[in-house]
Amino acid sequence: MKIVFATNNAHKLSEVAQVVGDKFELVTLRECGITEDIPENEPTLEGNALAKARYVYSRTGLNCFADDTGLEVDALNGEPGVRSARYATDGHDDEANKRLLLERMQGVENRAAQFRTAVALIVDGKEYLFEGIVRGDIACEEHGAGGFGYDPLFLPEGGALTFAEMSAEAKNEISHRGRAVRKLAEFLKQM
Ligand code: IMP
Q1: 0.90 exceeded by the pTM?
Q2: Burial grade of 82 (CB within 10 A; 0-12, 13-18, 19 or more)
Q3: In terms of C-beta density within 10 A (0-12 exposed, 13-18 middle, 19 or more buried), how is residue 50 classed?
């Protein structure tokens, strides 16, 4: 089955490709001729994921899915949440985002947080939502060079390594996106 994954993020693409294996042929935005940035102005992860999937479906008519992820920090009342990409600046500056998060968490004892991914799927015009969550803690400094985004600052529950210190396979096994996409893959297999 051919399906569009509404992303141009190479990290996300390789994570998701690893989860769905060869059961689905993933088509990227670029491959279906969408080169512009799709607006992500909704107040929730679910809203943004749906908006992206609807945009792609209306442009291509192809079955598609989109994800949106937020890092939700307990002591910051769920921030940066849906604004995770634009936490420090309007651009998409991972380094500035991580610096700001460390600044806000300076001296904070409760470091509990979660990554949450919403995945929106559109098949033959019908919409479906899936969610994946991983709980963990915000580290006091960056560790590791793998992954992307906030990975060097996120210590998944029960482990001593940040996502950026883990192999792609180990991250995928327990990650927010891995969990959400496994639900999506199970659902698609049963269709
Ligand atoms: P989006 O889902 O691409 O909008 O991501 C929102 C923000 O969360 C961006 O700053 C990403 O870099 C970050 N992000 C998304 N997924 C992950 C992840 O798996 N690990 C670390 N950061 C992530």
Answers
A1: yes
A2: buried
A3: buried
**How far, in Å, is the centroid of ligand 1 from the Cα of 23?**
25
Nearest to 169 by CA among 9, 49, 21: 21
Annotated catalytic residues are 68
Report residue 79 as tokens. 């921030």
Taking only the tens place, the pLDDT of each residue in 93-130 is 999 999 999 999 999 999 999 999 999 999 999 999 99
**7 CB less than 6 Å from ligand 1?**
no
The confidence band for 8, taking pLDDT boundaries of 50, 70 and 90, is: confident
Between the CA of 84 and the centroid of ligand 1 the distance, in Å, is 7
Minimum-distance ligand 1 atom for the alpha carbon of 9: 3
d(CA 16, CA 107): 36
Examine the pLDDT at 22 and tell me if it is beyond 90: no
- Chain centroid to Cα 167, Å, comes to 17
Q: Ligand 1 atom closest to Cα of 15?
A: 19
